[in-house]
Amino acid sequence: MAQKQLNQAKTFVLKEQDVKRSWFLLDASGKTLGRFASEVAKILQGKHKPTYSTYADGGDGVVIINAEKIHVTGNKEAQKEYTYYTGYIGGLRQVPYRTMHARNPEYILEHAIKGMMPKTRLANAQLKRLRIFAKEEHKMAAQKPIQVNI
Predict the structure, then answer these.
(1) Is residue 145 exposed (0-12), middle (13-18) or buried (19+ Cβ within 10 Å)?
(2) Tens digits of per-residue pLDDT, 121-144?
(3) Which helix (H) or strand (E) holds 82?
(4) What local confidence, expressed as pLDDT, does residue 106 receive?
(5) CB of 113 within 8 A of CB of 37?
(6) How far is CA 127 from CA 33, 50, 72, 83, in A?
(7) CB neighbours of 1 closer than 8 A, spacing ≥ 6?
(8) What is the per-residue pLDDT across 97-129, written as a single tens digit (0 to 9) for each?
(9) H or E segment at 34?
(10) What is the separation, in whole angstroms, between the first and last Cα of the chain?
(11) Is the C-alpha dihedral spanning 118, 28, 33, 91 positive or negative?
């Protein structure tokens, strides 16, 4: 009799109509880059929910403010470089962290979060729900983001 009860477990399948999406407002001021980016990646993928499925998009949207106030540990500020290729011969460019932080602080967070997501079409769709702002003000009031402290 006990054997029969064990075999009656139901498999949970997440369907698109069952997904309840919400938006979270996160403040990056004073946070460490890698630790903060990993928490944001979890929220985008939906790993913070009990209904998480690897094959379905059940994640929430994230609004990040104060991206310019994020910091890195150790010597990364002096040694970290962002590399890209222009497509031309000899077109390999390397931008130091300090320069990138002065030019485009949103890119630093976006690059870190994107690197922590899986390299799939599903992750590309999840990354579309990420909004990053360098300053305190944001344009996402219509989404009614919930203030969360990480």
Answers:
(1) buried
(2) 999 999 999 999 999 999 999 999
(3) strand 81-85
(4) 97
(5) yes
(6) 17, 20, 22, 21
(7) none
(8) 999 999 999 999 999 999 999 999 999 999 999
(9) helix 33-45
(10) 47
(11) positive
